[in-house]
Amino acid sequence: MTGPSLIAAGLGFRLGEDATLGAEAAIRGADRVFHIVGDPATEAWIAGLNPRSETLRLPGGEGETPRPEKYAQMMAPVRAALQAGERVCVATCGHPGVLSDPSHAAAILARDMGAEARVLPGIGAEGRMFADLGLDPGETGWQAWDATDFLIHGR
Fold first, then answer.
1. How confident is the model at residue 126 (pLDDT cuts 50, 70, 90)?
2. Would residue 154 be called left, alpha or beta, if left means φ above 0 and alpha means ψ between -120 and 50 degrees?
3. How confident is the model over 81-120, as pLDDT tens digits?
4. What is the DSSP string of 74-143?
5. Spatial distance between the Cα atoms of 103 and 93, rounded to a whole number of angstroms
6. Across-strand partners of 116?
7. What pTM did the predictor assign?
């Protein structure tokens, strides 16, 4: 990629096991790395790959700021880096395309700004569950529901 660009990279869920070589290369090769991870060990691993890394997590508890406003705040440094012409990586736990609004927001922002944007898959919750439990969804089938849908719509 030349010029401003963004890669949303999934890191999976287990440090040292789930991150792909592509995700690691995206972190190493970025001018700036922004991450949303849940533990200090993963933050330290990212910083070891690229010292120009910082969290996108905002202070405060869940529910204090409406999600659209929270995502706009989170995307402000990403926007600034893209405007500066930088190669940006947004790293998240799991798969950046599954239940990861910040990853989607970052990719949309980059494309809206005329920058190239890619999403690198990571091992998601389903893949981790299949591996941990020894399940093969090809044998019996598989259905999944988002619990939030049940809470919001009273199903």
1. confident
2. left
3. 999 999 999 999 888 878 788 888 899 999 999 999 999 9
4. HHHHHHHHHHTT-EEEEEESB-TTSS-HHHHHHHHHHHHTT-EEEEE----HHHHHHHHHT--HHHH---
5. 10
6. 5
7. 0.84
Side chain identity, residue 59: P
**What number of residues does the chain have?**
155
Pairing label, strands 5-10, 87-92:
parallel
Query: Which two tokens mark 34?
Result: 């922004």
Contact 14, 94 (CB under 8 A): no
Strand order in the sheet with 32-36: 53-55, 32-36, 87-92, 5-10, 116-120
Residues 93, 96, 99: CA angle, nearest 5 degrees: 90
Q: CA 146 → CA 11, 39, 67, 98, 111, distances in Å?
A: 21, 24, 18, 11, 28
